[in-house]
Write a structure and sequence with these properties.
Length: 626
């Protein structure tokens, strides 16, 4: 499979998932497919649900294309396409609600079909007795069904299930690419990660839309199917995916076991997971970022070791899950919290706070020194990103099957990486405010990345022209794209972390607003609101021109006419309406204000630059005549 085609497919999946989810938000609001908060919910406002249908559609289409036009065997394609059954059941459950018996029967039927298609029937295995083979197959199907429900149970706060899918699938994709080169299984892992990432944009705290049972069921099914496929094709070891799924498996399993021991119905909705208890104190964003950090900094390295050392897999699985069991105990997974009681995690924090102050002086001094040397740390980050992106591009393009970079490429690559890092530092990439990023910064980052690549190529051509010709040109393209993507991702993560620290433990929900006027004045208001961060969400626009209805504008669309404002405010759960002072002075603007007054809608008139300039000109003319 061509590496450039894989990269283009990944980028296309991200955009398509983002676009489909954005359109589905409006569809769900129009059809009243929403999640109403109740005593078991972790959110506080009406939110659309069912957005997981975006990555369901993309993943099924890509799988069908691989099976029909590429080298993926038909039985493997059929096994993955069977996931449409659990997705359909989840969608029906989102819309109308289904009994637990129907859901479990469909899940067992679909997982059994997928297991038989991927692994074969247990009767064909002659290494073990037939009864043992059948018992093992039944146990595997039950575990597979449990994985589906684990993901569904853990989809309880904003961004958690989608970020888990991104981390797990991206890690498996990279492991497959590094160990075996471009394969169909690694490509499918990458597609699942990219499609989930596009949805995550709209599901990130505070969420515009929820995944719903359709998305969570399908995610669990796809993770299990790709795990079986990678193990059967000997591209990943058996222990890799269970290690990466540790946060979800430990919290969900312990919660269900404790509830069953108390005689409760394990499938009933509740708010007793450890991550839900943590979200009540620290907020959705902090908990989701913590889970991402655990996946990337703790579970991913152990999964890599388990893939390299398969005999140590059980020990690495225990090592990976043991701290997670402790965290679940500290945050009372599956337990009903007693009001005004001190939770276990706070008890440990109080014990740590009672330690002698001298024990913290060294740590505080280290933090102060790190703050003073932050530009140097960022410079090291830049150099590290150059090396990592260069290695990933080399592993996907110019390495043989054994995974080693040929010696003749070592010197050109080192020289290229040094020149690239030096150019990035010369442009001051390490001195910028990493906790602030906007769309206006993206052209600068891409331009500096391109210039640094050109500088590295020019240096190699000047010093060792003969050896540069042996490196494929696609290597430099992929390396530049990876470097730019890494820098943007890290800066977005730093900005998100900075905003999260400025928020309180229970951040206020963003205000949902509709803007009057699909023109320059409306775009000016939309641009100003986006500079305010997460305080406001632009639901869409209204305009007096009937021809503008449905026209996309500034990342949204024209929802309807100005006379429909009462219906639109009710359907889209809008907090207020905004219009510019220049629009309010026109006849159409005055009619719109009257519609808002009749509908008892909260409307705000904002000053516009155009109106301010006209006012100043009139003032100067009056002064001159006087």
């Amino acid at each position: 499979m061509n590496s450039l085609a894989m990269l283009a497919s990944f980028l296309a999946c991200i955009w398509l998932s983002w676009y489909i989810t954005r359109r589905f938000v409006l569809f769900a609001l129009e059809r009243r497919l929403v999640d109403v908060p109740n005593e078991r919910s972790s959110h506080s406002r009406v939110t659309p649900r069912g957005g997981g249908i975006s990555f369901v559609i993309l993943f099924l289409i890509v799988t069908a294309v691989l099976g029909l036009f590429c080298d993926l065997p038909i039985r493997f394609m059929t096994a993955i396409l069977a996931g449409a059954g659990v997705a359909w059941v989840g969608y029906l459950d989102d819309c109308h609600g289904l009994s637990i018996k129907v859901r479990l029967l469909v899940q067992l039927a679909v997982t059994s079909t997928a297991f038989l298609l991927i692994c074969g029937t247990p009767l064909t295995n002659d290494h073990y007795p037939t009864l043992l083979n059948v018992a093992g197959a039944v146990f595997a199907v039950i575990l597979y069904t449990w994985v589906i429900n684990i993901v569904n149970f853990m989809d309880g706060i904003d961004g958690l299930a989608a970020s888990e899918a991104v981390c797990l699938s991206a890690t498996c994709c990279l492991l497959t690419l590094m160990r075996h080169g471009p394969t169909e299984t690694g490509f499918l892992f990458g597609v699942l990660a990219c499609a989930s990432f596009g949805f995550l944009y709209w599901n990130w705290p505070s969420a515009h839309i929820f995944m719903g049972d359709a998305g969570s069921y399908f995610l669990g099914f796809s993770i299990g199917a790709l795990m079986l496929l990678s193990v059967v094709r000997r591209e990943l070891e058996l222990w890799v995916v269970p290690i990466l799924l540790g946060v979800f498996a430990v919290d969900a399993t312990l919660t269900v076991l404790k509830r069953m021991l108390r005689g409760e119905l394990w499938y009933k909705a509740h708010r007793l997971h450890g991550f839900q208890h943590a979200a009540l104190v620290f907020g959705h964003r902090t908990v989701t970022l913590t889970v991402v950090a655990i996946n990337l900094l703790w579970l991913a390295p152990l999964a890599l070791l388990a893939d390299i050392l398969p005999r140590r897999g059980p020990a690495l699985l225990v090592l990976a899950w043991l701290p997670l069991v402790v965290l679940s105990y500290l945050f009372h997974s599956g337990e009903v919290l007693i009001e005004h009681a001190i939770p276990r995690w706070r008890t440990f924090a109080l014990i740590a706070g009672c330690m002698p102050k001298n024990s913290w002086i060294g740590l505080l001094n280290l933090v102060r020194r790190l703050k003073r040397s932050m530009p140097w740390l960022r410079a090291c980050w830049i150099a590290g990103l150059c090396v990592v992106s260069m290695l990933l591009a080399a592993l996907s393009l110019i390495t043989p099957r054994n995974g080693a970079v040929p010696r003749e490429f070592a010197v050109p690559l080192l020289m290229f990486g040094a020149a690239q890092a030096t150019t990035l530092l010369a442009f001051g990439m390490h001195r910028c405010h990493w906790h602030l990023i906007a769309l206006e910064d993206l052209p600068d980052i891409m331009g500096v990345g391109l210039v640094s690549t050109l500088a590295g190529v020019v240096l190699e051509v000047a010093v060792i022209p003969g050896e540069v010709r042996t490196i494929p040109a696609s290597f430099f393209v992929i390396q530049t794209l990876l470097l730019v993507a890494f820098i943007i991702f890290i800066r977005m993560a730093a900005a998100s972390y900075s905003r999260g620290r400025q928020l309180t433990f229970k951040p206020t929900a963003a205000k949902r607003v509709i803007i009057y006027g699909a023109n320059s004045a409306g775009l000016e208001i939309c641009s100003s609101l986006r500079q305010l961060g997460a305080k406001y969400r632009v639901v869409g626009f209204v305009d007096p021109r009937i021809s503008m209805k449905g026209v996309p504008i500034a990342g949204g669309s024209v929802l309807g006419l100005d006379s429909d404002i009462k219906r639109l405010v009710t359907v889209y759960n809008v907090d207020g309406v905004l219009l510019s002072s220049s629009a309010a002075g026109s006849a159409a603007g005055r009619r719109f204000l009257q519609h808002c007054r009749d509908a008892a809608v909260d409307v705000h008139v904002l000053p516009s630059i155009e109106h301010g300039l006209e006012t100043r000109v009139e003032t100067k003319a009056v002064q001159a005549s006087a």
